Amino acid sequence: MLGIGGSLREGSQSERAVRIALAGAAEVGVTTELIAGPELVLPFYDTALEERHEKAVRLVEAIRRADGLIVVSPGYHGALSGLVKNALDYVEDLRDDARPYLDGRAVGLAAVAFGWQAAVTTLEQLRTITHALRGWATPLGGSINTAETKFDEADGASDEKTVRTLRLIGSQVAEFALSRAGH
After folding, report:
1. Nearest-angstrom CA–CA distance, 82 and 136
2. Which CATH number does 2-182 carry?
3. Between vectors from CA 54 to CA 79 and to CA 18, what angle results, nearest 5°?
4. Quick one: 46 exposed, middle or buried, by C-beta within 10 A (0-12, 13-18, 19+)?
């Protein structure tokens, strides 16, 4: 299970959210990995370039190995961050794989923003991108308004419902991955 998210600031609210969701996946019994914030500072994705930066290679290989993903983006001005969008653009490098793009993988999604409008529109954009990449967006997604909810350093939040929602998203992704592996 791969978690992708955060902002340029290490330990950001969106990074903390993806950590909570990954904890929910780990409770189901899957191995988790996180690529967050500063690790997502990649050159702009360019299909014309064959060589990739070492961070981009690590990201693409982690996605390739993953049976499920959790993606959390901050919402900036009503949209997902350029950092997260650029990382998702690198999924294009999986186009010729036996399992192209995010095919056959559940993807748990959450958006973290200071206000409901940006949180909701960012989540919807993440769903649209997931569908375009052939991923299965989990039934539950998270829109988190940090004007009302604050994450702490102990993988918790001021609102217990937010923690339960993120853990459930993680467990949905893990359960989907395990059920696909069983057939």
Report:
1. 22
2. 3.40.50.360
3. 40
4. exposed
Q: How many angstroms separate the CA atoms of 82 and 119, rounded?
A: 15
pLDDT digits (tens, 9 = 90+) for 65-82: 999 999 999 999 999 999
Domain ranges, ordered by start, for the chain = 2-182
Q: What is the dihedral of CA 178, 67, 37, 41, to 10 degrees?
A: 180
How far, in Å, CA of 22 to CA of 169, rounded? Answer: 9
**Separation of alpha carbons 49 and 27, rounded Å:** 39
Contact 141, 169 (CB under 8 A): yes
φ, ψ at 80 (rounded to 5°): -65, 160
Cβ neighbours, 10 Å, residue 10: 11
Taking the C-alpha atoms of residue 3 and residue 166, their distance in angstroms, rounded to an integer, is: 12
- Consecutive H or E run containing 142: strand 142-145
Could you read off the pLDDT of 120-153 as tens digits, one per residue? 999 999 999 999 999 999 999 999 999 999 999 8
Length reported for the chain: 183
Helices 160-181 and 13-28, interaxial angle, to 10°? 50
Answer whether residue 111 shows pLDDT above 80. yes
